[in-house]
Amino acid sequence: MNDERTEDRRPPLRPLLALTTAALAGATIWLGPAPAEEPGPGAGEPARARFSMLPSNHMVLRAMLNGKGPYRLIFDLGAPITLLSNKAAEGSGAVDAKAPRSFLFSMRGEAEVRELRVGNLKAEKVPVVVFDHPALGVLSDVLGEPIDGIIGFTFFARYRTTIDYQKDEMTFAPVDFEVRDLMKDLPDRIAGPKVARSRVLAPGGLWGLRLGEAEPDGRGVRVAAVAPGSPAALAGLAAGDVLTAIDGRWTTSAHDVYAAAASVEPGREAPVAAVRDGKEIALNVRPADGA
Amino acid sequence: MIHKFIGVAATLALVGLAAAVGAQDKAGDVKDPQVGRAFRVPYRLTDTNHFLVRVRIDGKGPFNFLVDSGAPALYVATETAAKIGLKAPEKGFWTPVDSLEIEGGARLEKVKARVEDPFQLVGMNALGLPGASIDGILGFTILARFKLEIDLTRDRMTWTRLDFIPPDPPVPTDEDRKNPPAEMQLMNALGPVAKGLAFLIGKQPEEQLAPRGFLGLEWAASAADPRAVEIRRVLPDSPAARAGVAAGDLLIRVDGRPVDGLPAARDAVAGLRRDQAVELVVKRGGEEKALRATAGEGL
């Protein structure tokens, strides 16, 4: 039974391989010069990088690591870390070829790429985790070309990143975000007490509302009372209205209402969507500074 | 002949080409009114550095979906599909979805979902991420319809709708085969990154959220001294009114914390819980008064 299934799946892979090679050859021309040859972005301009799509619908960037390469790295919004294969890590000098390996995936642990270039972006001191991810091995086999790693959160969180699948282009503009290092946090998380954290959801300003029950099936939260003369009253909200969205955020629970109000600074007019007597209404509330 | 070739190539790799072909095929169709619009999509970043956004499917929800460019399609977990009333067809690979709304206003009609529990989901849910179960995955066939902007210093992403419908990943030719094709299995194989961490971290407890307590005070910077916070209004029947706070009072301290400006005033009450007693020291006619209030319910 198993053999039969394997047999079934084999045929699509062979033409896939051939076509992929052809497509990638095309992509190489189309992607333009290797990253090392591109001039940096102009002042105030974000850096740009072209990506190509694998048959598996993964985005692939060609990257120079410490001046070596190019290496082919999958860009993955769902990957919390940036990962390099042993081969790429050794070839680029990110890890010493003599560094010990663990028996599991030849795990080398954490390392740092001094300089990573994609398109005209130059990133420095990029933390990576070095191991041979089995999926990348399988992908490389199918494609007939090595996939050398995955670019994940620890890289792209440094930038305001845009991804345009229509143009096959990404842009990167640096932002001031401190990237939490998942791998460094791990020991604490494992050892740490499994106690629920507690957080107060503070609205940005004073609205003058008291909430009632949430409606069933995520339909919204009913307003129990509106304080006379308050920002909510001035905007026209009334007891009995069912709040469905505040400032573009859905409000299906009281927590949702507080979380949405938390990002409305005092004095800023926020759109509020509600249902009154079965009809949708749209209002604008300008919360006051206060509590 | 040429069309056939383009069809094959597009399905396999050449997404750009696929767009061009798609546009030609649908020349007569009315353009989606959302094309060109930018949507501000609220997201949550999990402890494991994954992005969650909320969606409604066929009007049901909201549900938490993972934003994962490493996933090939729209995945709806089997439990979520049951809640929505989505039924996987007897034959075929995809389950049709009438509407997919993404928090922030984006809406897609008539999209295809795969009802399945990829092990990213199983793994992520094993983590016990604070306050959220993960109900599905927004993968390539959904994400590629937008230009995505991600900036961790902002609390929302910006998704701009493109005039572009990405091709579906290849599916098994045999209509009633239930197993995903090799290409999709390959994509799913990236999942163990998350699951591996899950097994190390173990289940995390849910975060407890408490709404902030209510006082019923409006304040502003004093005209005489911009570092002084003056009460502008006290809402009738509010905890502040019951405590005796009056318009014109200067707010000096909250529970012993000095108030020397609007940011300090906001900070001083930010952690106030419902039913919590709080001491408000105000200055009225040159005299300081300590007033006791009990935070109420509201915002």
How would you characterize the overall build of this protein?
The complex is a heterodimer of chains A (291) and B (299). Chain A is α+β, with helices and mostly antiparallel strands. Helix content of chain A is 25%, strand content 33%. In chain A, strands 3-4-8-5-7-6 form a six-stranded mixed barrel. In chain A, strands 12, 13, 14, 15, 16 and 17 form a six-stranded antiparallel sheet that branches. A three-stranded antiparallel sheet of chain A has the order 1-10-9, with no helix packed on it. Residues 1-36 of chain A have low confidence and may be disordered. Chain B starts with a helix and ends in a 5-residue tail after the last strand. Chain B has 299 residues and is α+β, with helices and mostly antiparallel strands. Chain B has helices at residues 2-12, 15-25, 78-84, 119-127, 140-143, 182-188, 192-201, 239-243, 262-270, and strands at residues 38-42, 44-45, 51-57, 60-67, 74-76, 95-102, 106-115, 136-138, 146-150, 156-161, 208-211, 217-221, 229-234, 250-254, 257-258, 277-284, 287-294. Chains A and B meet through helix 1, helix 3, helix 4, strand 9 and helix 5 of A and helix 1, helix 2, strand 3, strand 4 and strand 9 of B. Strand 11 of chain A pairs parallel with strand 11 (208-211) of chain B, so a sheet runs across the interface.
